Amino acid sequence: MTSPPPSPPPSPASRPEPPADAVRNEEAAGGAEGAGQSGKPAARTINWWVELRSLLVLLLGVLAFHSFVAKPFYIPSESMMPALLKGDRLIVSKYPYGWSYVSPSFHPLPFLRGRIWGRLPERGDIVIVTPQDSREDYIKRVIGLPGDLVEIRAGQVVLNGIPVPQKTLPPLMVPVDGNAPCPADQFPGALTYGEDGKPYCELPVREEILPNGRHYTIVDVGPRETDWYGPMRIPAGHLFLMGDNRDNSADSRVSFAQKGLGGPVPFESIGGRAEFITFSVDGSTTLNPLSWWTSLRSGRAGSSLHPARTRVPSGKWEIIERPVEALPDAR
Questions:
Q1: Where are the domains of the chain?
Q2: 258: three-class secondary structure by DSSP
Q3: Angle of CA points 153, 155, 161, to nearest 5°
Q4: What is the CA radius of gyration of the chain?
Q5: Which of 51, 152, 180, 331 could be a cystine partner for 229, CB 3.0 to 4.6 Å?
Q6: Beta strand 138-144 with 126-129: parallel, antiparallel or unpaired?
Q7: Which residues contact 75 (CB under 8 A, 6 or more apart)?
Q8: Is the pLDDT of residue 153 over 70?
Q9: What is the pLDDT of residue 221?
Q10: Taking the model in full, what pTM does it have?
Q11: For 187-206, what is the mean pLDDT?
Q12: What is the CATH number of domain 70-326?
């Protein structure tokens, strides 16, 4: 008796599909194999060197920008009132005068002569200056350029034998706050109250006009030792700087021993030009985030720090006040 011939194997298309739960069980088994005996996903390893390198590149980028392009600054004193108040934050550009040893952030370099692509400031520019053998930044206004004969007589600047015109303005009413307390030792008798019942610092102010026509407001409270200086010729490669708060500024009129600039400063000590105010706080900021908003002073954000310019008559300047005959030659 012959056996029947074997049946052919089923074609792939006719093979039965495995049950769905069998597929899921196989996937689960495969996942368990990949994850190990614990059944947890494999831990992702962190390449700490890559992370550290990224942070280092970011830090170097920020330092380079602050050193060679622009940097934010904070005003800690009243020496540049009324243009700048204590508590103002501003932007200083680092490139207008080229770069020197004070350009890098934190000033790690010793004093070095020369500038890269140097260009002298204009009279009236507000600049950042770092005295020699110091890492502290000052902010002052450029008054005299190399070769100028500068003198201060009874509080009035005399450049190259000609008094800089000044004009008396109405008193300036500065609101009193934590950063502008109107201290009696700086502004004697200036504390007053307005019609709104709030305290103000009533400051005597003048408009000063430099030979290039740039004008700005200065505070002149009364006689001080710094109302007299010179005459002296500004050496080559040096600048004469003054604060707008003429009676309370450690500038080129003040010695190193009194924490001033000790006379004209080397051009290399200029770190940049003040551009504009970003925001200003009144000193009431606390850890409470709500105070960060309420402490902002209104009307100061975005204020330009470039002085306006007016036309100066050619030839002999017009002396608006205090003609030269009224300026005594000695104290």
A1: 70-326
A2: helix
A3: 35
A4: 35
A5: 152
A6: antiparallel
A7: 84, 85, 86, 87, 88, 89, 90, 139
A8: yes
A9: 93
A10: 0.81
A11: 95
A12: 2.10.109.10
